[in-house]
TrEMBL record, chain A:
It is found in: Membrane. InterPro entries: ASTER. Residues 1-21 are annotated as: Disordered. GO terms for molecular function: protein folding chaperone. The chain crosses the membrane at residues 30-47, 75-92. Coiled coil: none annotated. GO terms for cellular component: endoplasmic reticulum membrane. The keyword Ligase does not apply. It holds the Pfam family ASTER. Keywords: Membrane, Transmembrane, Transmembrane helix. The keyword Transmembrane helix applies. This is Protein Asterix. Belongs to the Asterix family.
TrEMBL record, chain B:
Residues 481-495 have a biased composition (Basic residues). This is DUF1682 family protein. It is found in: Membrane. It comes from Trapa incisa. Residues 60-111, 131-158, 469-495 are annotated as: Disordered. GO terms for cellular component: endoplasmic reticulum; membrane. Residues 60-72, 79-90 have a biased composition (Polar residues). It comes from the Eukaryota.
Length: 100, 495
């Protein structure tokens, strides 16, 4: 009868062990992918807006990051492309001459 | 579970990498190329501006007049024009060094203003002497040409200012969006944490439901272990263990992505709810052959189709007559009527699922699924899925949470009647047999594949071997032939 009054069984307690998730089973990081696509497009076509979008999406992907090592690669790739696109856009050699 | 998209995804990103390297190369090449040009461009633009400021437009259009007016200074022209035509620039700016010509020509011939004009694009490739002749000849032509020249100059002076002005809009929008994103990130994060903590305080704090039912709470070891495990910014996990009939309970809160401005905007269009799902891992000896699920009508149909155990063993049940049953919009999936009838007890109907109480207490209910044939590492599981109420109204879901220990005890004690059990056991045996057969088939296939591979390998080796033998044989043959073909000589001694 005592069993039914207190359902707790300390002897049966098992500590939590997080289930191992394989890296390929993780959900796909779409925003990181989009960031890379926009970043590459921004560098290729020297299109400012695309580079900015790449930065926004890589920031989003960074905000949603769950697994440190796995996602960081892609995010850093997208970020790098975005920054490179912006640098070539703003400090690139073919900028318009400063006006006097 | 092998999931096909990720490898594809990985290969895609690999491809992107390659592409990016290629485009880097291109950009590098193009920058060096443009760099060479840009020197000219920069100088030109500056000079142009200066002349624009200094000389009035009439004189400006005259800059190219020297060939006409001064037939005595042809070398000057060639000097000016030839390097320009050689330039690989796509939009040839027509004034390479207007300063020089302006200073040399303007004071001497101010009168011949708009008349003659040298369009070197028009006369490209002609020898210099001929060019002069032609240029002196039609002064009318030159007048026509002067107009587009002016317009070109006008066009060129405009884009210096306009793209900068236009581009600021993009930057302002993007940077303000990023700032908003950052602010939203911190506020949203705080909001989600507050919801999760409110839930934990309500249901896993002192004298709470889980405290009274489980001896171990929290994800760590020891007494003061953290209750919640944060997995990402919108996923929180809560673990409890140490109860009769079950090994443990794992609750996963999936909140809205409040920290993410983009998904927040998306959720304005496609609304979603904060959800909490409980997985109870039952002891193997504590659960009979029970397959039972309950959800809203539409969701139930989806579950019946998608979840393997429901699809395999259970079907949608129509509400029985002459008995109190669950609320109308819910539907029940079960293996047999008896199981369903036993699972939906009067107490549950009275507390949550009945007509009256559902309005007040069952709002957050999404689904419930008990199965002893769950795919995955744990076969015997009870799954519950509820919508989380507001951060202030956590008490609304008290009765829903109370369902969990109730059903753990209920299912743990539940025993099927003999005839139903024999039926369910037959079904499970059949399923197991099928699974076994499938496994056998797969194994056989694998074996056959390996065999074929081995055979192929052997054949290959044999072929190589035989090829070698054949070559040897051929070589021998040839040697013999050669021997035969050779003139027979008899070695004799001369004396």
């Amino acid at each position: 009868m005592s069993q039914s009054s207190d359902p707790r069984q300390p002897s049966a307690a098992r500590p939590f062990k997080p289930p191992a998730v394989l890296p390929q089973d993780l959900p796909v990081d779409y925003s990181g992918f989009i960031a890379v696509v926009f970043g590459v497009a921004g560098v290729m076509f020297r299109y400012k807006l695309s580079s900015w979008l790449a930065i926004i999406f890589s920031v989003q992907s960074f905000a949603n990051m769950k697994n440190m090592e796995n996602d960081l690669k892609q995010i850093s790739m997208g970020m790098m492309f975005a920054i490179m696109g912006l640098v070539t856009n703003y400090f690139g050699p073919n900028r318009p001459a400063p006006q006097k | 579970m092998a999931w096909p998209p990720p490898p594809l995804f990985a290969s895609l990103s690999n491809l992107l990498c390659l592409l990016s390297v290629l485009c880097l190369l291109i950009t590098h090449l193009s920058t060096s190329f443009v760099l060479a040009d840009s020197h000219f461009e920069g100088f030109e633009a500056d000079d142009e501006d200066e002349t624009l400021v200094s000389a009035d437009p009439l004189q400006f259009s005259n800059l190219r007049s020297p060939p006409v007016s001064h037939s005595g200074t042809p070398p000057d022209i060639t000097k000016i024009t030839t390097p320009e035509t050689d330039l690989p620039d796509s939009n040839p700016t027509p004034f390479p060094s207007p300063d020089k010509s302006a200073t040399s020509v303007d004071p001497s011939k101010p009168a011949s203003a708009g008349f003659d004009y040298w369009d070197e694009d028009e006369f490209e490739g002609l020898p210099v002497a001929e060019q002069q002749k032609q240029a002196t000849e039609p002064s009318k032509d030159a007048k026509d040409g002067a107009v587009p020249q002016d317009s070109v100059a006008g066009q060129e002076s405009i884009p210096i200012a306009s793209p900068r002005k236009r581009s600021y809009a993009i930057e302002i929008v993007c940077i303000s969006f990023l700032i908003m994103f950052a602010i939203n990130y911190f506020t949203g994060k705080r909001e989600n944490e507050n919801i999760a903590l409110a839930w934990a305080a309500k249901f896993a704090g002192r004298d709470s439901i889980f405290e009274k039912n489980f001896s171990l709470l929290g994800v760590g070891e020891g007494d003061d272990s953290p209750l919640l495990l944060k997995e990402g910014l919108n996923v929180f996990k809560f673990y409890a263990s140490g109860r009769r009939y079950c090994q443990g309970l794992l609750a996963t809160m999936e909140l809205k992505s409040r920290h993410d401005l983009i998904s927040r905007i998306y959720n304005m269009v496609v609304p979603c709810k904060d959800e909490i799902s409980f997985e109870v891992y039952m002891n193997d000896d504590a659960m009979d052959n029970v397959i039972f699920a309950m959800a809203k009508k539409k969701a139930a149909k989806g579950m019946q189709k998608e979840l393997r155990d429901l699809q395999r063993f259970a079907g949608l049940l129509s509400p029985p007559s002459g008995r109190k049953w669950v609320q109308e919009e819910m539907s029940v999936i079960s293996e047999s009527k008896e199981v369903a009838g036993d699972m939906i007890t009067d107490a549950v109907l009275d507390q949550v699922f009945g007509e009256k109480s559902f309005e007040n207490f069952g709002k957050g209910f999404i689904s419930m699924h008990f199965s002893d044939q769950h795919p995955g590492p744990h076969n015997k599981m009870l799954l519950f899925k509820f919508a989380l109420p507001d951060f202030n109204n956590m008490a609304d879901m008290t009765r829903l949470v109370a369902l969990i220990p109730y059903y753990i005890d209920f299912v743990g004690r539940y025993k099927l009647s003999p005839q139903v059990r024999s039926k369910t056991e037959a079904a499970r045996a059949k399923a197991a047999q099928e699974a076994y057969r499938e496994l056998q088939n797969a194994r056989q296939e694998e074996l056959q594949k390996r065999k074929a591979e081995k055979k192929k390998l052997m054949e290959d080796a044999e072929a190589r071997l035989s090829a070698e033998a054949l070559r040897k044989k051929e070589a021998k043959e040839r040697a013999r032939q050669m021997k035969k073909a050779m003139p027979r000589m008899k070695m004799t001694r001369g004396h």
